[in-house]
Amino acid sequence: MDKGIHSDTQFVVEDGQQAYSLADLLTLMTRLRDPADGCPWDMKQDYKSITPSTIEEAYEVVDAIERGDLEHLREELGDLLFQVIFYSELSREASRFDFADVVADLTAKLIRRHPHVFPGGTLDSRLGKARTQDDEAEIKARWEALKLIERAEKGQRKVLADVPLGLPGLTRAVKLQKRAAQVGFDWPDVHGVLGKIEEEIAEVREALAAGDPVAVQDELGDVFFALANLCRHQKIDPESAVRSTNKKFERRFAYIESQLAVSGKTPQTASLDEMDHLWDEAKFNE
To answer: Which pLDDT band, with edges at 50, 70 and 90, does 7 fall under?
Structure first.
């Protein structure tokens, strides 16, 4: 099923004096998996065994972006691309599809989902005249409608079908909520969501009072789900919000440690009151 992508891809990067193309990368992947003289580690991998690396590489791309480290981003994007190359090679070996098929399917899908850019349904099609800017909400609604049609064509009739199980919990919660909202199952405004959060917190209090750890876990899950819903209504990515808070906590706690060190103390030897005071200082100084 090889479509000749090795020979006609033009992307080039440089490594010292040597220039390499995407075609070279695909050749490298084939060599790594060569039963005769390939890499023993690469040869024994399968779809499932490399999924942890895929998740890790995706997070490292996000981390580089959030730190503003664009030089490191170049490297991390390469690592993420290699994951796509690896899966494509596994499928090529099994005569299912190859990297060229992945590129072709992606290009066709994006053309289909952007009729406001490719009105003729081809890569070369143009409006041929100036147009007013489409409303962002209208474009987004059209995008979601096209995805619904695609899922129906694949036989995925259920509203919540194919939302990946491997997504981070808050991200998957938002995707589930978006799907339900498309068929009208949604709060009319943010006030209903806030009321739901308060209701769920009250149920956490009841579970705690009852001393039921299973119920506490269940109710806390409901709180997280409701909070994700609030983020969705406010167009906030919950994972980004949590990552931002994590960084804020790290920054403030680092201040506590540095200030304690001045007086010869550590968090282990300091009192909670001391650390609370320094936390307030860190917060005030930001």
So the answer is: very low
